[in-house]
Design a protein that fits this description.
Layout (H helix, E strand, L loop, with lengths): L2 H21 L5 H8 L3 H14 L6 H9 L3 H8 L5 H10 L6
Helix pairs in contact: 2-6, 3-4
Length: about 100
């Protein structure tokens, strides 16, 4: 496959993932962490890291705004619910090392 076409496809897939997450605001970050080992904040951190690897600079809050589709503080106020004791327990049992 042509490398430029592959990059276009990967970018389209990433945009579709962000759209899907935007359409599923009911799925909390802790649910994503417990089921898949990553969340919207992880995507934001990966975005920052990928930019840095390519000589670009974007701060974490700007990356989160790209991933969340709005400032994180606004998303958190509108959509984030308190984690249940079951969610927190599952998170503690399965927490990746980089989320300690």
């Amino acid at each position: 496959m042509d490398p430029n076409k592959q990059t276009e496809i990967e970018a389209a897939v990433f945009r579709r993932l962000l759209q899907h997450l935007d359409e599923r605001k009911d799925v909390q970050n802790i649910d994503l962490m417990n089921l898949a080992g990553f969340c919207r904040n992880c995507l934001s951190k990966w975005y920052v890291a990928a930019a840095e690897e390519r000589g670009e600079t974007i701060d974490y809050e700007a990356a989160r705004e790209i991933v969340y589709g709005m400032p994180y503080s606004e998303w958190k106020e509108r959509y984030q619910k308190p984690a249940s004791s079951e969610q927190l327990e599952a998170f503690e049992q399965n927490r990746p090392d980089d989320h300690a």
